[in-house]
Design a protein that fits this description.
Domain Glycosyl hydrolase family 13 catalytic: 108-533
Helix content: 10-25%
Protein name: Glycogen debranching protein GlgX
Radius of gyration: 26 Å
Oligomer: single chain
Number of helices: 15
Largest sheet: 8 strands, parallel, barrel
Structural class: alpha/beta
Biased composition (Basic and acidic residues): 430-445
CATH superfamily of the largest domain: Glycosidases
CATH topology of the largest domain: TIM Barrel
CATH class of the largest domain: Alpha Beta
Distance between the termini: 62 Å
Organism: Tichowtungia aerotolerans
Strand order of the largest sheet: 11-12-15-16-17-18-19-20
CATH architecture of the largest domain: Alpha-Beta Barrel
Region (Disordered): 430-459
């Protein structure tokens, strides 16, 4: 028997783990009801409280209640319902957290049958994947599952193979309103504050009908799969919506907080997430809860992968120390139902950084080192040594994990930080609208503004910004590993300098689709980059370079690369699929012409290394093998 609800032949079975001395099931006919139509005393068996209810039916609502009369949401509910629409505060009082009575979320009993038809997972290999990170509401404007389907042709045109959604588990966007204070007008837009772990976000459904989010989510998954696009969910198991103990109870606190949360010796919640609490992920009960949750989203919702928010928190033991072999990570990798899905770790939390050494053989990492080194090379002219390491797949980080660059999820920007356009337009964060006096968000962004902070009417500055965006995008897609693109970066989306827009449900966070036409050149450039990557296996290696006949590094003017001081580099990938990548981050023209001429060395006969090269792509006009300042070019051997 697993926790949750199960439709049986003779009724509906409810089961939940709790250390409470007693537990009652409450059934409601309407989501706004404050009084249940029935209360059923549950029985305890094999560590679970359970009840088989013959008269419970799909369409009803339910909650649990412990011996202290706390209302408790089932964290395993397959659908959750608030009797309101997105951001609607009608009937709520600011400063009451959590909201009880008519606004307390209730679980929904659903009949979750769905006509999947011939739906099959695309199973795109990692070396052929192009991940697109986006926020469902911010991307569509209206913020619902079905409207996202209309954007699928755009994603196909761009060349995307997988969409990575910011959290779609049920959360409460009115979290700040309910806490009250000067920030009560802001919303929890990103959704990193989970209420229902098995339930898709109900207010992302186009229909107000309770449980509609389940069928609409499945409809979106089916449509993405039909287009050959995978769906990856950003999942938050490191903390929950209950936050600090003083904030009130939704579920785990009233069920068994000693099992579900890490505590210090004084009984206070440990805070490795920076959000007030840390889930006790390696406790046997919590571990099984998380594995069951992942299995549900794969088997019943047909999800193709997960990105684990602050995944280092999932590696901590009872006292908060990092475990060498976390039982949860082992259990996830051993679970047969999860055998073929993509597993991606954000390999850090507030006290640990595990990029390159995150436990588990199947997990890929968000490669924060890639982001930092590429930004520093282009924006602050760091030498080419770090650039070469990242271009080649970050073997310094991942070689010990199985000799594969596919452990590296490469990115320049993500939801957390500047957009690409802002990265080349702002040197300082501008988060005043977040109500935290600009203290929140990363202070060290390795950004550049080319002389003007924010928007500029200067054509020369805008031209340099455009070229720099091309340089950064090209480096992303020409590097070994798995590229991840932030939604809208392909046509210059801006957040007006806000690098932590978690609470901004407005023009700061919404994708401005008018920029697609305005910045068509950048979009076409990005599309060409993705097509180039897909056309050349040399850019999608499953193993690291050996340096023995597979790659040659070249410097300008016939010299060897100056790893420690140089800012120009050539990468000649040899073999059946031959590519030449030339990069110039000097402040003057740089020629690689000498490397293309015949070798007139001491041999009896000169051995030409020159080939009939074809220019495939460049971030600026290129004269043969001479590159202008701050530019990049890619050549293939002409067939």
């Amino acid at each position: 028997m697993n926790p949750g609800i199960t439709l049986r032949k003779h009724g509906i079975e409810f089961a939940i783990h709790s250390s409470a001395g007693s537990l009652r099931l409450m059934l409601f006919d309407r989501p706004e009801d404050e009084t249940p139509i029935r209360e059923i005393a549950m029985k305890r068996k094999h560590g679970l409280w359970h009840a088989l209810v013959p008269y419970a039916t799909p369409g009803q609502f339910y909650l649990y209640k412990n011996g202290e009369n706390q209302w408790l949401l089932d964290p395993c509910a397959k659908a959750v319902h608030f009797p309101r629409t997105w951001a609607d505060t009608t009937g709520l009082t600011a400063g009451i957290f959590p909201a009880f009575g008519t606004m307390f979320p209730k679980g929904v009993i659903i009949d979750d049958r769905f006509a999947w038809g011939t739906d099959r997972p695309p199973n795109t290999p990692l070396n052929k994947s192009v991940i697109y990170e986006t926020h469902l509401r911010g991307f569509t404007g209206s913020g619902n599952y079905l409207d996202f389907i209309e954007k699928i042709p755009y994603l196909k045109e761009l060349g995307i193979t997988a969409v990575e959604f910011l959290p779609l588990f049920e959360f409460n966007e009115l979290e700040f309103f309910l806490k009250g204070g000067s920030r009560e007008h802001l919303l929890n837009f990103w959704g990193y504050s989970t209420l229902g772990f098995f339930a898709p976000m109900s207010r992302y459904a186009s229909s107000p009908e309770p449980g509609a989010a389940v069928s609409e989510f499945k409809t979106l998954v089916r449509a993405l799969h039909e287009a050959g696009i995978e769906i990856i969910l950003d999942v938050v198991f490191n903390h929950t919506a209950e936050a600090e103990q003083k904030d009130g109870t939704y579920h785990f606190q009233g069920l068994d907080e000693d099992t579900y949360y890490l505590k210090d010796k004084n009984g206070a919640y440990q805070n490795w997430s920076g959000c007030g609490n840390t889930v006790n992920a390696n406790h046997p009960v919590t571990r099984q809860f998380i594995v069951n949750c992942l299995k549900y989203w794969v088997q019943e919702m047909h999800v193709d992968g997960f990105r684990f928010d602050l995944a280092t928190s999932l590696c901590r033991g009872n006292d908060g120390t990092l475990l060498e072999k976390p039982p949860l990570i082992k259990a996830i990798e051993a679970e047969p139902a999860l055998k073929h899905i993509k597993l991606i770790a954000e390999a850090w939390d507030c006290g640990g950084y595990q990029v390159g050494h995150f436990p588990g053989k199947r997990f890929s990492d968000w490669n924060g080192k890639f982001r930092d080194d590429i930004r520093r090379f282009w924006n602050h002219r760091h030498p080419v040594g770090e650039l070469a390491t990242r271009l080649a797949g970050s073997s310094d980080l991942y070689r010990h994990k199985g000799s594969s660059p596919l452990h590296s999820i490469n990115f320049i920007t993500a939801h957390d930080g500047f957009t690409l356009a802002d990265l080349v337009s702002y040197e300082q964060k501008h988060n005043e609208a977040n109500g935290e006096e600009n203290r929140d968000g990363e202070n060290h962004n390795d950004s550049i503004n080319f002389g003007v902070e924010g928007p500029s009417d200067n054509p020369a500055i805008n031209a340099r910004r455009l070229q720099q965006q091309k340089n950064l995008l090209a480096t992303l897609f020409l590097s070994q590993g798995v590229p991840m693109l932030l939604a809208g970066d392909e046509f210059g989306r801006t957040q007006q300098g806000n690098n932590n827009a978690y609470c901004q449900d407005n023009e700061i966070s919404w994708v401005d689709w008018s920029l697609l036409e305005k910045n068509k050149e950048l979009f076409e450039f990005t599309k060409q980059l993705i097509a180039l990557r897909k056309a050349h296996p040399a850019l999608r290696r499953k193993t690291f370079f050996t340096g023995k006949g597979d790659v040659k590094w070249i410097g300008p003017d016939g010299k060897d690369p100056d790893w420690n001081n140089g800012h120009a580099l050539g990468m000649h990938i040899t073999g059946k699929d031959e590519l030449l990548i030339l990069i110039n981050n000097e402040e003057h023209d740089v020629s690689f012409e000498e490397h293309m001429r015949p070798d007139t060395g001491s041999g009896a006969q000169a051995q030409p290394v020159s080939k009939d090269w074809k220019l495939e792509l460049s971030s600026a006009p290129v004269d043969s093998f001479t590159l202008p300042p701050q530019s990049l070019a890619v050549y293939t051997v002409r067939p």
